[in-house]
Amino acid sequence: MVGMVPPRFALIPAVYILLLREAPGAGPASKGGPASSPQVLLQLRRGTGFMDGYWASGAAGHVEAGESVVAAAVREAREELGIDVGAAGLEPLTGMHRSNDVGGAALEQRVDFFFAARSWTGEPRIMEGTRCAGLRWFALADLPEPVPPHERVVLERLAAALDGGAPVPAILPFGFDGERIERCAVARPR
């Protein structure tokens, strides 16, 4: 081991903004009946080199040097969707700590901050046509295929929480050797 330089560890932060709305024409639950499934805006990725052809969060991206995760979320919504969510319009959902090298050395890890937004200024539209092949609203209870696996975990947990299930855990590990999300999720204090 003398003279060997250990591999460098990298932790890469990113933000995900999930725009949520009620289905058009849907109202709240009435007389004990279920409410319609909320919808989430997803983008069809292309030309990025990562998960192209997948339906992913409407807006997402890396946190820039010296930038807070909240400022990054506001910036990404503006850059990718042409909308203003404002910091006050962001609802923190979960933090996900994940590895892209399942069962490997995990030298590159990600920390993803997921936010929901239920109100914004402007109409979501494609702002980066070379990176996005389409925008579409989907019911959380009926997600398309394919969705990046780490995002699907959050979307499915959010759908269950909005349907009266357990809240989305504050922290979700994903992709580490042998770990299962159900076992490792750190619950929010009640």
Automatic annotation (TrEMBL):
Domain Nudix hydrolase: start-end pairs: 10-160
Alphabetical list of CDD domains matching this protein: NUDIX_Hydrolase
One term of GO molecular function: hydrolase activity
InterPro entries, per the entry: NUDIX_hydrolase-like_dom_sf, NUDIX_hydrolase_CS, NUDIX_hydrolase_dom
Requisite cofactors: Mg(2+)
Entry keyword annotation includes Methyltransferase: no
PROSITE patterns in the record: NUDIX (PS51462), NUDIX_BOX (PS00893)
Keyword Hydrolase tagged: yes
Record's keyword terms, sorted: Hydrolase
Protein name, as recorded: Nudix hydrolase domain-containing protein
Originating species: Actinomyces gaoshouyii
